[in-house]
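Quick one, tokens below. Sequence please?
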């Protein structure tokens, strides 16, 4: 008790300081302007359309709110992610999305140069290539040449770009982007019911290996 009496003025000063700090914090926090911002609730991949369960609105300090953000979920529902993925918790920005259809948006995202077209391949041609991802470049092989001279397997299109792939249904097909000049050849093979397969190479340029030399007879 004696200690309290001797330090009474110090204790009073400490209590006043604590109360003042609380009041100042409350005053500052209530004066901080906030604005509604749409953020990703789940990670949204490139090519996916934004659904209501993928996003939510949070209050953001107005001073740091991105100028390309959105304030309402309804304004972006159905839009396609073209620049991403948008990681869960990140702000959805106008540069991340497009109002184009999902396939066209994906085509424009991965085939950045003009002159490419999307085409659907026959089912079952690359059943073992389930690890392929959007944006991977593959080579398309099929029967080429004159059938009367025997079946010849050759390269139909090099560095086609994967836009979509089968999920679990074997009847689903790969969708790839090919240069417009290769599209007629690929379409003809599809129409004629020719089987096709995909090959993943690790180079932009295919290096043709020379055939082994024939042994010279002595």
């Amino acid at each position: 008790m004696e200690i309290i009496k001797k330090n009474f003025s110090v204790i009073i000063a400490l209590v006043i300081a604590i109360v003042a700090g609380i009041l100042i914090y409350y005053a500052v926090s209530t004066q901080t302007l906030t604005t509604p911002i749409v953020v990703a609730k789940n990670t949204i991949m490139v090519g996916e359309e934004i659904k209501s369960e993928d996003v939510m609105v949070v209050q953001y300090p107005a001073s740091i709110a991105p100028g390309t953000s959105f304030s309402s979920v309804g304004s972006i529902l159905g839009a396609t992610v073209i620049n991403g993925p948008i990681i869960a918790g990140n702000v959805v920005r106008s540069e991340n999305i497009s109002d184009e259809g999902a396939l066209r948006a994906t085509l424009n995202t991965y085939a950045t140069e003009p002159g490419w077209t999307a085409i659907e391949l026959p089912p079952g041609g690359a059943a073992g290539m389930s690890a392929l991802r959007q944006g991977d470049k593959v080579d398309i092989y099929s029967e080429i040449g004159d059938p009367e001279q025997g079946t010849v397997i050759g390269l139909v299109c090099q560095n086609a770009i994967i836009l979509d792939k089968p999920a679990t249904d074997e009847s689903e097909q790969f969708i790839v982007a090919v240069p417009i000049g290769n599209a007629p050849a690929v379409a003809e093979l599809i129409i004629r019911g020719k089987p096709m397969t995909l090959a993943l190479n690790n180079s932009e340029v295919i290096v043709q290996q020379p055939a082994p030399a024939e042994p010279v007879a002595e």
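Residues 113-199 form one domain. The two ends are 118 Å apart (CA to CA).
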